[in-house]
Specification:
Radius of gyration: 19 Å
Largest sheet: 6 strands, mixed
Number of helices: 10
Strand content: 5-15%
Oligomer: single chain
Length: 243
């Protein structure tokens, strides 16, 4: 019952409650155990807890994953990655949801996504690489004015030392997988790496090593096929001026 309560979040997990079962299961990977214990030690409610009960739990899980990650690589084909979106762009993406969201629910998601972007600007920001397919830059969510502001924001944030924006141009040709959006969060140790995929029914989280290898290879393809950061900024600036 104790383990079940911990797994469902009913009972708090503490460093001691991490180390005891690790010992019982004869786990001798000290770096892994220390990383898990450190996560348990830092699990006092984050800012996202104020949204619990108002937004789907999966959205809060994504935020907690980003908050504790050492670095994040995100790839998107049909829309700009969430951590790089402006409020107007996010609003238009949320408004296109099916079933439709109420205006209150849309604004709640916009406010939440804007707060998620703290990880890029806090005192110890994560290293973030966003791969954006040219298709995503040409789909005008919200219309020309909102899309122009979105691309100006991409150009600006790509100038931060911890943020790398790379454009995959149409000329790169075909791409692996189904063109789905994915986020790869690197943990303190490889065992804590996690992939988050978008789906119509909510976020999906993947931890299995073989699957992580597959999605790393997808992002590696995007790295190889995308324009370098400086050329990507030039591409974004030129495209925004053409709107």
């Amino acid at each position: 019952m104790k383990i079940s309560n911990i797994e469902t979040g009913v009972r708090a997990i503490t460093p001691a409650r991490v180390r005891t079962p690790a010992c019982n299961y004869a786990c001798d990977d000290e770096r892994y155990i220390d990383a898990l214990a450190d996560m348990a030690n830092r699990r006092s409610g984050g800012w996202w807890e104020t949204f619990r009960g108002q937004l789907p739990a999966g959205l809060l899980d994504i935020t907690e994953l980003e908050w504790h990650a050492r670095s994040v690589r995100a790839g998107a084909f049909l829309h700009v990655p969430g951590l790089l979106q402006t409020d107007g762009y996010t609003r238009s993406v949320c408004a296109a949801s099916r079933p439709s969201l109420s205006s209150h629910e849309v604004e709640l998601r916009v406010a939440f996504r804007m707060q998620r972007q703290q990880v890029l600007h806090r005192d110890d920001p994560i290293k973030y690489t966003g791969y954006v397919h040219e298709a995503a830059l040409r789909i005008e969510f919200g219309g020309t004015k909102i899309m122009r502001r979105q691309m100006e924001h991409l150009w600006e944030i790509a100038g931060q030392d911890n943020v790398y924006v790379r454009v995959v141009p149409f000329s790169a040709g075909g791409f692996p997988g189904a063109g789905q959006s994915l986020l790869y969060a690197q943990g303190a140790v490889p065992q804590l790496d996690t992939v988050q995929l978008d789906s119509a029914h909510g976020p999906v989280f993947i931890h299995a090593p073989a699957q992580l290898d597959k999605y790393r290879s997808h992002l590696d393809w995007m790295e190889t096929s995308s324009l370098p950061p400086a050329q990507s900024r030039d591409f974004i600036r030129a495209l925004s001026r053409s709107l």
